[in-house]
Amino acid sequence: MRRLLEILTRPQILMTLIWVNGLGTLYGYYWYKDQLLTTPPIFLPLVPDSPTSSLFFTLFLILLWYNKRNPYIEAFGALLSVKYGFWAVGIIFFFGYLYGEIHWSSWMLVVSHFGMAIEAFLFLRFYTFKGKHLLAAGSWILFNDWVDYTFDVHPWLQSDEFDIPISWLTVLLSIIVISIFAFLRNRKSESNKFVGIKSETEYIP
């Protein structure tokens, strides 16, 4: 584990991750352009789920680069990345199985979203968020789920036929992700699992 932490914090690795996540964020917002153009302005912040996730994680990486910390950004970046990373992979495989084909572009999304979720776990030891930060991020995720499937502003799917079961599974995934990070956060007080960079780290409340 120590070896992995050393690799993740190497300047060239960290800067590469910042660029990859940053460019992926920009592409993600571009990917949502058609849906954003047809969405009422009040719901716009709730539409581009994955790029917003990677935006928060990119901000976390940038702060880490400068040896600064913001627990709210960490919590939003981690929880959203895991939730929407696995959600996208699951949706792509579900419709791929249903229609018997997964397009090459969808495989690119599978790789990028799975990487987004795994990446959030790789940086576990660098997170400093506590209960209130976890509560804020978790509340946002559940609120986003409610808006998505109450006002039909969830990411466009290949068919609306499965909106109801997908909505319930989406909420279940949110609860699971929140529970996982709550469990990991609780272990911090016992075994310091969420220890960040200890030397001269500046915290931004």
From TrEMBL:
The answer on whether this UniProt entry bears the keyword Heme reads: no
Superkingdom is Bacteria
Its keywords, alphabetically, are:
Membrane, Transmembrane, Transmembrane helix
Q: From the record, give the transmembrane residue ranges.
A: 12-30, 42-66, 78-100, 106-127, 134-151, 166-184
List, alphabetically, the InterPro entries matched: DUF1405
Tagged with keyword Transcription: no
Name the chain's protein: DUF1405 domain-containing protein
The record lists the organism as Effusibacillus lacus
